Amino acid sequence: MNRLADSLSPYLRQHADNPVDWWPWGDEPFAEARRRDVPVLVSIGYATCHWCHVMARESFSDPQVATVLNERFVSVKVDREEHPEVDSAYMTAAGAFTQGLGWPLTIFATPDGATFFASTYSPPVATGGHPSFRQVLDAVWDAWTNRRVQVDETATRLTAALKAAAEETAAAPAARVDLAAVVLELQRYEDTEHGGFGGAPKFPVAPALLGLQRVAASASVGREVRDAAESLARRTLDAMAASPLRDPIDGGFFRYGTRRDWSEPHYERMLYDNAQLLRAYAELGDKVTAEGVVRFLHRVLRVDGGMLASAQDSESVLGGVRDEGGYYRLGEAERAGEQAPAIDAKVLTGWNGLAISALAVAGRRFGRDEWLGHARAVADGLLERHVLVDGLVRASLDGEPSSAVATLEDYGSLALALLELGLATGEVRYAVAGRDLLDRIIDSGPSGPGFRVPGGGDPTLRSQGRELPIDPGEGASPSGVTLAARAALVAYSLTGDRVYRDVAEAAVRPLADVVRTRPLSMGGALEATAQLDDVPRELIVVSEDRDGDLVATARNADPSIVVALVTSAQAEAFASAGFDLFSDRAGRSEPTAYLCEDRVCRLPITDGARLASLLSGSPRD
């Protein structure tokens, strides 16, 4: 029975013709496993994952392997991008069995959903000490049939350990982070020869770079720490821009390099990486690299409705032969005669939110109104198709919404993006929409302020009692917790409503210990921490001319400042919509800037040189 052919996920559709009797994620496969009293195999990946493609060809397309799977297991396919909560829950469990976590992720679970074994890619033939996939299946089946008590005990112990760890994380005490110590720790990880952090494989770790850039603009640390943070981020970004990780033709960045010098990339190009790197290069002032990333986003990833696709594949067919990365090794003229690698056209709300933020920041920074136009197009597409009266759509394909529930990442990312787009364009409708999304996830209940996803998380995980508390885990992209906290801090600057600052503090302060001990994998939390530690600073420029001296100066304000570029009429609209920072900012006959600290503003500024002097001679020193 083909249950995947009509799936929204391109990843699941890629497996629709396998001889494996796949089930999509949900309650039904677990009920079937209970009926048959067999284990559940949960295979997690994504459409542009190279090793997922390899394992699909080697194992899941093999009729003999499929026979074993169909007779002994209930097999479930999960798109990690469509169901990030499922991926996160099982990835956490998999850490008990393998240190080399990644995708494809293969989970073996009881019919109640409890993990008792996990692995990643398995070859078709045992090699290099790694068992074949068939050997893994045979071993799991032997354990299930002959050592069932041990299997159940393993699953029970792991479930209890994961629950205890989650409760410990949720109950972590609020604390402050020593940002100087974090910067020093990140310096220790630096590859001083090739740039970046660690050895091979080498990832961009964009959240950590953005966190460093935010620390470099922080008033809560001294000049030496700020300079160290700025230099470390700049060295890494410069090295990546000049490396094989960046496509010199389309301008986008590949997912990671397999070598220390960034060479031999894994050639899939992800929206979340490129969105964050666009923002980082904009903050750096690197217009050339930023232009390349915008070109990639607009020309390659743009899909129907103005929104952005999730990724571009690494594989292409050249001369009738499948080649991983071959297309990207061609010159511009040679590419013109070849079919480009496939796009995963699935639209993800959270990742599109990252792109809106990046385009808004870069468009404002470089005075590129067409980039702001790209950001508007993405935002308008999401507002029309993904923002519903009762919640958000997590994912869609060709206008069809996924049944997957939206996550805190979706709410926090889009709320922040819409607030930043409203400030960059002066269009209050975006800021209002962003504030409304933020208000939906703030819970001011008796246990104290916090963020909650309307309607709860994944229903299957919840029914099994395996739903994790709000996951602060990060890595290649910021968590929903830190995105929501950053949005709340912007909303506080604009409204003065203390609820926003209180909920951000309640969310971020308990992350202090993991930021201190694992800063490279907690970059989003580092950025939110630096933002929270600073006295809020705001800059409003009211001008009918978007090219005047005041506007030009404001474009280069550092990341610690909430910047708004508005006309007089737009300032009035913001004030009328409840953004009190804009009250009494309209009506002057000449362009005027208002520079504020925690919403207490200096006298109006009408001279660009004076504003530049105030911004460069900030109270940090």
Structure commentary:
By secondary structure, the protein is α+β, with helices and mostly antiparallel strands. A five-stranded mixed beta sheet has the order 1-3-2-4-5, sandwiched between helices. The protein has a four-stranded mixed beta sheet with strand order 21-20-22-23, sandwiched between helices. α8 runs parallel beside α10 (223-241) and α16 (408-425) packs antiparallel against α17. The protein is globular, with a radius of gyration of 25 Å. The model has no long low-confidence stretch (mean pLDDT 93).
How would the blueprint of this fold be written?
Layout: H1 10-14, E1 22-24, H2 27-36, E2 40-45, H3 50-60, H4 63-72, E3 74-79, H5 84-94, E4 105-109, E5 115-119, H6 133-146, H7 148-170, H8 179-189, H9 206-216, H10 223-241, E6 256-257, E7 265-266, E8 269-270, H11 271-284, H12 287-301, E9 311-312, E10 315-318, E11 321-324, H13 332-335, E12 343-344, E13 347-348, H14 349-366, H15 369-385, E14 387-388, E15 391-392, E16 395-397, E17 400-401, H16 408-425, H17 428-441, E18 442-443, E19 450-451, H18 459-463, H19 480-495, H20 498-508, H21 512-517, H22 523-533, E20 537-542, H23 549-555, E21 561-566, H24 568-576, E22 592-597, E23 600-601, H25 608-616
Parallel strand pairs: 1-3, 2-3, 20-21
Antiparallel strand pairs: 2-4, 4-5, 6-7, 8-9, 9-12, 10-11, 13-16, 14-15, 16-17, 18-19, 20-22, 22-23
